[in-house]
Each structure stands twice: as structure tokens, then as C-alpha cells.
């Protein structure tokens, strides 16, 4: 769905919100039983078990004392999350493995840990930045409105401590619904391709940020579709073995939803942006960065974040990174970067075998954040963990019954109806809105706010759609360097190291 509203001026509106003596928004949690170790998993159905406060551990009211007023973001702006989340005080340096799910987030969700909350907001903002940088104007020449060199400052995340190294593009399979917007292409300056769509980016932490967070972090962000719930039209597709899409999983019982895998692996040799599939683009970039920094003796993590359709792509991508060994550095003696997914509002992606290999054999961690009123995380699937105990679900999968799906990872469920700032509405798109999820964690959402807060829908807009007035008085789109959106020249080199293309 579309989440065009941006939270770059959170403090402007958050400061104006009244101080209410009401209970804070609450989170419904679903967690695994305590794990024996960081690598241990128990495949059991996860159902709502209890309710916990949205305030952080150090904000929770003491027992037997009067409850505090609602705790909402008061002076946080994009770019200051390091100070607000506890990253700058050195806490994350020693705790980042715990925050990234080493112990399946046991003890961090009830109430939500302050440092974890800050990290979820930070990575959620990365997913939102994919929307904010997508150029919706059909007359533009550009796939992404901002160059990677100034990407974070352009979307209002200056100072976040990461640099974009690669933009990601996807193309629709011939039998797949179009996930892009048809663009006008001037014949004399064909910068945009109608078959290629900007869908995310890869970024890496700066030296200063790396020192604060305790390791070099490679972040991969995926957006959802650019129109509301457009992708649901493809949820009728069948489960198919991952191996049919070129992923190196030899077990034919490991299956994913066909439409998601098609978008992840499809490419168009005639398209400038999609000469390589989204899969090849991200694997080559992750492999290059892991090898560069692990080869220098640094500890490295790979964090994948997303929203909506992007969640499905992120789950397949995280699986693929671990399965292909893109997170392994040969020059560092086989050092392996921890892979974690922070997912927002995602659908089910695969069957029980996909889940078991993802969580168990590959050891990828995933924390799924959702709104209990959102319908998207409830699809697809006829036989799911929501209706069958896991042993019966596995049996149904083994019998080859159709539409057997299972969610992955630990679930953190939010409830927007308990927020004092959000209005009652029947608009399902609001329930799915990424900004609404960030509000329930610690932010706010403009289109979903009560009318008395006087925040207009879609308030963040670029004046004149990015056009500027030239010296002769004409309004024109400013020129951008062509090399900004080219695929890196060494893509084939890193794909060859992973065995995905022949060595040249």
C-alpha cells in the first residue's frame, strides 16, 4: 500500500499533542517459549498470550503506584534516533546480538525494551524511506527521486549514520501484475524504464555509527507496492519449490508463494535497471560489503527491513543470503555475518518447510511487527498456524494439501484502537499504514490522526513535484548524473564468487 506521508517533522506535531492522562497504546505479544540457546528453536503455534505496555522498560510505571501519562515521542526527529534509542550511550555496543534476536527477543517485549524500540523505529524509517524516495510522478525521468550520495539527507534522515551503496530495482514477470506506474518517457532522454521499478536499497553504517552500534551493519530495505494493497491480486498464486526460481535450496519440499519469488528473481536484459534481477543486485552488494569489512577484521551484521509486499521479498532475501553464503567472508576464514529481519505488516510467504529451514538450519532471525486489525498479515493460506496446531500443519504440508502456509519468526502485535491519538475509521489502508505502526511503537501517523490535531493528510509534499525554474523562466526537472542508477561494474564478479554466474 502507499505510505506517502513522511515523519521527517515528527517533533513539529508530536510537541503539539496534548498530555493525556490515559493509558499508553498497548501491544499484544506472541513469543516463543524460552530457547535453550541462541540457535535453538521450538516450532510451536504462537497465539496471543498477554498484553504489555508500549512504553519502554525504563519508562514503565512502578508497581502499586499511579500510572504515568501516555508516553509518546516528544522531541524526536529523524536523524536523532541515536540519542533517543540509547545507541549513543554505548548500550547497543554490547547488546546488539540480543537486540537482533540471539535469544528470540525473550524478555524484551513485555514491556518493550527501550533500545529495541529505538532500533525498530530506525529500521522502520528505512523502509518508509523507500516510499518517500519513490518518484510517483509519471512524467519524471527518474526511477528514484534522490541520488544515493545524498539519499538519507534528502528523505529527512540526515545524521542516521548510514550511507546508501546501491539502489535496488525489480521487474514484473510477464504473468505478474504490474507493481509500477506507467511512466512517460521522452524519446530524447530515456532515463526511466517502464519495466523497472525502484524497490529498495542497500546501505552500510559509517565508521562513527559502527563504533556506536558495536559492529558494521549492512541494511537492506524493501518497500511495498506503490498503490494500496495492489499486490493482493497475486495472492491466488500457488506455492512452488524455491529451487524452481534458481535459489540453491535442494529440498523440493521448501516452497514459497510464486508471485513473490517471481518479482524477486525476474529480470529483463533490455531494461537498464533490471539487467540483473533484484535478487542478483542485492546478493552481489551484500557479498561485496561483507567481504570488504569482514576481510578487514570487523564484525558484520546484515539487517533486512521492509513493509507489506516488501516483507515477503525480505523474508525470501534473508533466506537467500544465508542459503547462498552471501553473508560469509572467505578471506576472513569463513566469518559469518548474523542475518536478522525486522518486518512490518507482512503476509505469509512460504510453507512449514520454508519456515523450518529459515529458522532452524539457516539460523536467520525474524521479528514481525503487525497491527492486529490489519488483514494483510492474515493472508495467504487456507491451512495456517492460526487454525491448526503445528504438528497438524506439518502433516497437512507433508500430504501435499494446497495452500499450507506458516508465518516465520517472533510476532510483536500492536493494536491501534488503544492509541488515544488515532481516530476510528473503516479505512483498511490506515490499519496497514507503516507510519501507523511506527506511531504505535513511538511515533505518529498523519493521515490516521484525530481531526482535532489539525494535521492534514499527505502533509509532506515536494513543492512543484521537484521541478525548478530555469534561467529562461521555464519549469524543468533538474538533471541528475546518469551513473547514479547504473548497476555496479563488479556485479558479475561477486555473483561469480557465489556461483550464480559463470566466472569470466
| Proportion of residues in β-strands | 5-15%
Shape-level CATH architecture? 3-Layer(aba) Sandwich
CATH topology, by name, is Rossmann fold
Query: What is the share of helical residues?
Result: 25-40%
Distance between the termini: 41 Å
The spatial strand order of the largest sheet comes to 2-1-13-12-11-8-5-4-3
**Overall outline:** globular
Largest sheet: 9 strands, mixed
What is the chain-wise order of helices and strands?
HEEHHHHEEHEEEHHEHEEEHEHEHHEEH
Overall pLDDT level: 77
Secondary structure layout plus pairing:
Blueprint: H1 10-14, E1 26-30, E2 50-53, H2 81-85, H3 91-99, H4 114-132, H5 151-154, E3 162-170, E4 197-205, H6 207-213, E5 216-222, E6 239-241, E7 255-257, H7 258-265, H8 278-294, E8 300-305, H9 309-324, E9 328-329, E10 335-336, E11 338-344, H10 352-361, E12 365-371, H11 390-398, E13 410-414, H12 428-432, H13 434-441, E14 468-469, E15 475-476, H14 491-497
Parallel strand pairs: 5-8, 8-11, 11-12, 12-13
Antiparallel strand pairs: 1-2, 1-13, 3-4, 4-5, 6-7, 9-10, 14-15
Helix pairs in contact: 4-13, 7-9, 8-14
What does this structure look like?
With 504 residues, this protein is an alpha/beta fold. The strands form four sheets. The chain has a nine-stranded mixed sheet with strand order 2-1-13-12-11-8-5-4-3. A two-stranded antiparallel ribbon has the order 6-7. A two-stranded antiparallel sheet has the order 9-10. Helices cover 26% and strands 14% of the residues. The protein has helices spanning 10-14, 81-85, 91-99, 114-132, 151-154, 207-213, 258-265, 278-294, 309-324, 352-361, 390-398, 428-432, 434-441, 491-497, and strands at residues 26-30, 50-53, 162-170, 197-205, 216-222, 239-241, 255-257, 300-305, 328-329, 335-336, 338-344, 365-371, 410-414, 468-469, 475-476. Helix 11 links the parallel strand 12 (365-371) and strand 13 (410-414). The chain has one domain: 3-Layer(aba) Sandwich (Rossmann fold), CATH 3.40.50. Residues 1-88 and 186-190 have low confidence and may be disordered. Helix 4 (114-132) runs antiparallel to helix 13, helix 7 crosses helix 9 (309-324) and helix 8 crosses helix 14 (491-497). The protein is built from 14 helices and 15 strands.
